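Quick entry between incubations.
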Amino acid sequence: MGQPMGEKILLAHGSGSRLSHDLISKVLTPVIMNPVLARMDDSAVMDMSGRLAFTTDSYVVNPIFFPGGDIGRLAVCGTVNDLSMSGARPLYLSLALIIEEGLDIDDLSRIMESVREAADEAGIQIVTGDTKVVNRGKADRLFINTAGIGLIESGADISGSSARPGDKIILSGGIGEHGMAVMSQREGLHFSLPVVSDCAPLNHLVAAMIAVSSNIRSLRDPTRGGLACTLNEFAKQSDVGIVIEEDKIPVHDGVRGLCELLGLDPLYIANEGKLVAVVAEADVADVLSAMRKNKYARQAAVIGKVTAEHRGRVVMKTRIGASRIVDMPVGEILPRIC
Amino acid sequence: MKFIDEFRDTDLVRRLAGKIAMVSTRPARLMEFCGGHTVAIMRNGIRQLLPPRIEMLSGPGCPVCVTANSDIDKAIALASLPEVIITTFGDMLRVPGSYSSLQHARAAGGDVRVVYSTQDALQTARDNPNRPVIFLGVGFETTAPTIALAVLQAEKDKIDNFYVLCQLKLTPPAMRALLDLGETRLNGILCPGHVSAIIGTRPYEAYARDYGVACVVAGFEPVDILQAVEMLVQQVEDGVARVEIAYTRGVRPEGNVKALELMNRVFDTTGACWRGIGKIAESGLQLKNKYARFDAGLQFEVKLPQAREHAGCRCGEVLRGVITPFDCMLFSKVCTPETPVGPCMVSSEGSCAAYYQYGAADG
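Done. Structure below.
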């Protein structure tokens, strides 16, 4: 029995009935099939040895489709990137769907296609999963949880607490694109500016960086809270100061325009395909040139440095030559009133 | 980006800062009235480029900050009424009233929605014809015309479930009240850019004439602000006080005639209560009798708690420019953006929030 076009998810699709099995075997698993998943037992069984990295994240983005991606691509990239930022090679992923009754099965299929595309690009296998359907109003169309396992092969100990005075801060490209792409789609905001989410798997980029340098101290993808949040985390975890230069930070014109209009600061806006690296000064040139060969980091640049002064704080040299503190973001980021 | 990068040009900024340092020989106390200016000054670190004898004080020009506790209490009470949908600009959500905030009212089940324009609020009313939709009309002359337009449109389209809680305030009377108080002994005022785009510069003439205070209308980019400061300093040095426009690409002396007409059609002036300053005659706007059916203040009866101020909070003095946020005992200790005690720490344009967020690296 195939799923006719235009059909919607019913509560029965999550009940363990034949409908559930049809959904799993016809809509979900064929798209992402691989030998481990094909066993269809209660657990995925894999052979692994070495230092493992293990992470999980839940995705509740609204809307579930946005310029440059959707919740499926996000759920794969987000977890792949979390593994990558620990210096791990992402290998296996779990995928759990919480579906609100009434979701179009066509939409679900599109999202599964995105999941597959992103997983293929990252070279990761989805080896286990789960599907639940909840009553209308109990979820917002679709929530996804993914967990990922990766292998740390290099000897590197990449951590937010490893930054040292003298190290340089490298950013892989323009900031704020994911956050503004999603915001521009949200209810009540009818902008048609071409801001596209940067959502992308960064594991190949990180692999290229690790291949040329064993002195990458810290790596992080500045997601919620943006660049400002990540730099503050580094400064606090490593007990160092950080100085960045405003005019070195790439910001796409569409992002700037939207931020100006809404009174937001791109430093605090989420990214899903960017990374910040703290790298020993001697290795900066090699790391930068390796990064710029990757399509997700053509604009990679040194944006600042680690200092022994003002420990725990991030200071920005403004475009006009003054300096100001860049603090942690506070609460919900709200547009201004006038 | 066009029309922005030119006004952030580093060379131009340096040249202006150099010129100010050269021209300035005597102390000058200047106040930026507008919260938008305070943020721009802090965010760009503009104070660091000025000689120490030029003092920049922050004024009461953040609409959320000057909204009296009792007015916020009223909005919260309305949010608790059954079926009512409150629409508001985002800044109002976290502002503490006497006992609660709209954010808390929402968590307790109130339907409070953030909108980005009065048109969105009107659309919410169209989409929910069986529920009262109240827009929280907080703001200055910049917001007032858009609210006037929404009311006229609601009348024309017969949208009878749309209401405005009108707490709009006017800038010039508050400026005069500050000058009358005389606490800050100002030499010059950096006049608000967006407000002046609406009201023009005529209202400021009296302040230059009667109080001998230099007035220059400024835009919001570093070059705009420094150019205006340079013009103010020049007036102070020359011992004159007049009204000038530095923000010529945004402001004409006569203002926006069309917007002013809209405001006159829909609103009457009335006395209004400003946090930190108190009641100021003719400093607020209310809907004319003709539009009373859109007035949430008249159409809904709510029981208000006894308004109270938070002990130790010195937002009032901050708003009057008598102290800087650093002088308040609560600042950054008890009162932070996560746990704001006073409104100046909440609004993105509040002085305390700007000082907290962007405080000079060396200060």
